[in-house]
Write a sequence for this structure.
């Protein structure tokens, strides 16, 4: 296949319409996990990778109480003010 044939084939492949169906995995918090997460973050002053996934799940949870929403907001404000450190560790559990 020469360059011209490749260019024509490449153009046809790229211009073909393909439909993808995106499946969304449900994001669910374990009951009482959010309270424990907030307590751990305030105790350690650090947000780990695992914590970030928990915070992300909380953001998408439509069933948070007003108190949980305020706590979530306080965590994000503390991160923005650099009062809480974001670390690349998976967990803060000591070995």
């Amino acid at each position: 296949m020469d360059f011209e044939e490749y260019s024509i084939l490449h153009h046809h492949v790229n211009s073909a319409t393909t439909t993808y169906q995106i499946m969304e995995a449900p994001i669910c918090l374990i009951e009482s996990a959010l309270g424990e997460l907030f307590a751990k973050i305030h105790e350690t002053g650090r947000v780990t990778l695992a914590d970030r996934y928990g915070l992300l799940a909380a953001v998408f949870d439509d069933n948070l109480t007003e108190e949980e929403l305020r706590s979530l907001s306080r965590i994000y404000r503390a991160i923005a003010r650099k009062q809480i450190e974001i670390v690349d560790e998976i967990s803060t559990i000591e070995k």
